[in-house]
Each structure stands twice: as structure tokens, then as C-alpha cells.
């Protein structure tokens, strides 16, 4: 799926209706809304990547949250996971602001780009393998367009697996296949892949992922990408 630019990729992506189950779910959520966001207009479409086109660090998540990026239209924006991530990105100098609440809030990333394996919010946050595979072409295309990326941070095991699949589609594969772990590092072709627990409430509330742990991974990525 070749695209001449990130903007061309985005135009194609936001119009995608390739996965009927995901289309129904994202649009149902956008129509019903959460009570606390009743007055807002939900994005309700596939969510494009966000960040610095000259980034050397790419962060890959699972999929947009139903009332987060599916509402705001920006990756990791408008939910607790995003609150954690942007605060840490700002702390290590990769984001201009410590918060990201809307597409027009002035947030900018410096040297980093945010993406995901699946671009539509999935029911129960669980895409099917077929949905993952249909959507993966967008991540493959981003890897080609983000020509300066050298470090990829996979936020969670699903993102680790999806990133390895995308890299393999671009001709970069490791044998044996690297295993996910927090802080795990694997050289995959010209990229260094780093594993990080996802900043979900399931991990942050239980202490499985602390701010120090997240910022340590981000700082390591900056060091390696320099």
C-alpha cells in the first residue's frame, strides 16, 4: 500500500471501512457517547498517527481507546493511558506539553511519533487476528515514510507482535523471534525494538508500570536514537 506522504496515508486511513465489526463499534460508541462527554463530537473514525515527521523514535500501541482517541481523533489523547504517556514524553523532552486533550490543543512531539497496530477502537479492546492483519498495512507504510526512525517502542505484547510483523513485511525479521518484556531490546534490521508495558490503568494502578519505569524506557530510546 504505497503512499507518497504521511498526509496522503492519513487521508486514506481515516476513510477506511475494511473491518465491519470495528466500523460498527467505533460508530456506535461515537453515537451513544459517555455521559461525561455528552456535549462533545466524537471522531468515530480510524485514528492516524501523530507526531514529528522527522522522528527517530516511533511508539506503537494496540488500538485507540473507545472514549479516548476514538473521541478526540489523536493517538493516546483523552484517556488515562494518554495522560501517563504524554506526561512522561514531556518529562524526557519528547513533547512540548505534559497533557494532550484535543487535536487543537497545541501539543507537538519532538523527535517522536505515535502510532498503533490497529486504528479503530475494538470492542473490549481486543481486535481479531484478521482485523490486525488488515490494518497492519498502515503501520508498514508509516515505517517507510518515517525514514529517520531508528528506535521503535512497543507498548505492550500486542504492539510488540504487530511491530515485528510490520518490520517483517518491510524485509526485517529475526530468528529466533524476540520475546516481549519490559525493557527488552532486539535489533531488527536497521531498527532497535524496545518493549514497554502499556500505560493502561491495569498496569499503572497496580504498580506494574511506574512513571520511573516508563521514563527510563523513553530516556533509553532517546539515547539510542541520538
Characterise this structure.
With 226 residues, the chain is an alpha/beta fold. The protein has helices at residues 6-14, 20-32, 69-72, 80-91, 129-145, 157-169, 201-204, 211-225, and strands at 50-51, 57-61, 112-116, 151-155, 185-188, 191-196. It has a six-stranded mixed beta sheet, with helices on both faces. Strand 5 and strand 6 (191-196) form a beta hairpin. Helix 5 (129-145) packs across helix 6. The longest helix has 17 residues, at 129-145. The protein starts with 5 loop residues before the first helix and ends with a helix.
Features:
226 residues, alpha/beta, single chain, Uracil-DNA Glycosylase, subunit E
- CATH superfamily, please? Uracil-DNA glycosylase-like domain
Instruction: Count every beta strand, where a strand is a DSSP E run of 2 or more residues.
Output: 6
Using the 3D structure, state the CATH architecture. Answer: 3-Layer(aba) Sandwich
| Rg on CA atoms, Å | 16 Å
Give the integer mean of the pLDDT values: 97
CATH topology: Uracil-DNA Glycosylase, subunit E
Percentage of residues in DSSP E strands: 5-15%
Helix content bin: 25-40%
Low-confidence stretches: none
Write the layout of secondary structure elements.
Elements: H1 6-14, H2 20-32, E1 50-51, E2 57-61, H3 69-72, H4 80-91, E3 112-116, H5 129-145, E4 151-155, H6 157-169, E5 185-188, E6 191-196, H7 201-204, H8 211-225
Parallel strand pairs: 2-3, 2-4, 4-6
Antiparallel strand pairs: 1-3, 5-6
Short structural summary:
38% of the residues lie in helices and 12% in strands. With 226 residues, the chain is of the alpha/beta class. The protein has one domain (6-225): Uracil-DNA Glycosylase, subunit E.
